[in-house]
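Exercise: predict the fold of this chain.
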Amino acid sequence: MTEKLPNGMTYAEAGVDIDAGNAMVDQIKPLVRSTRRPGADAEIGGFGGLFDLKAAGFSDPILVAANDGVGTKVKIAIDTGIHDTIGIDLVAMCVNDIIVQGAEPLFFLDYFATGKLTPEIGVAIVKGIAAGCVQAGCALVGGETAEMPGLYARGDYDLAGFAVGAAERGTLLPKGVVAGDVLIGLPSSGVHSNGFSLVRRIVEASGLPWDAPAPFAPGRSLGQALLDPTRIYVKPLLSALKAGAGIKALAHITGGGFPDNIPRVLPDGVGVLLDLDAIPVPPVFGWLSRTGGVTEAEMLRTFNCGIGMIVVAASDDAEAVMQSLRDAGESPVLVGKTVVHTDGEQVRASGRLKV
């Protein structure tokens, strides 16, 4: 007599749909191909992505790698249903950290984890990732989509990005920063991808829904305005570096704002005096400051306040560097100088933010 077995369980019944994942891969292949560049054919489907440094034009390269996410900004994308720009943020947070070391971003991989895969949402996210890669000039060579019911709620997801770049040996930044150099700021597009736990708390305190008109951006909803993607500074900075404009250091203003990020490129004995009056502060920061009662010191340590990238150059080279950046489409502004530092805060400020 044969024992009757119960109905067999399946992966799909457990909440993981392999067919949906395969369908998403098929839909994103054209997006991935759009990111092709010398060194990578940007075709996905294998177990690993390939990159040919020689084909990219390097002779004696040093590799530079970075990884990051977009923090709780992703929660606003989920709550608003706007998924096609958060991928730009993901790329930006990684490649901006590579260019500050004087390296050219070459390729990118993403990790997308969700409770229940909805292919159209996944495709929208990858659309943004591909757009960011095109802006940065790097190839999207692979990624991973993980469907994890029980770990993420249905509809929730998180993102991580991984980028690799290269620089010829001897060209890495920072180099030669001394007291008396100048700080040149490159404008941000808004909040970028840092401080969103505070942003979300301020929005909650304001009582405004995501689809309410943005108080600081006429004609747009609050959610849309806060999801403005992080600026990618790669191409203008590469252009200036290749032109030999005299850039000594670059600092990406991310989590920790000015006090925590600028010192990362300063040698011992050198500090910074920021001219807050010179910083062009976008209206979003004024609204956040007033609505949340956020002090100036907290603004400077949490947000970019309108400057997403700092360029350090010798004072004699300042105008040439700024002109090189203008030629590349940037709008640089002088925002401070380096000074002798003996004790106390390494980053000090004069003036006040115009919020």
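Check your answer against the key: The mean pLDDT is 94.
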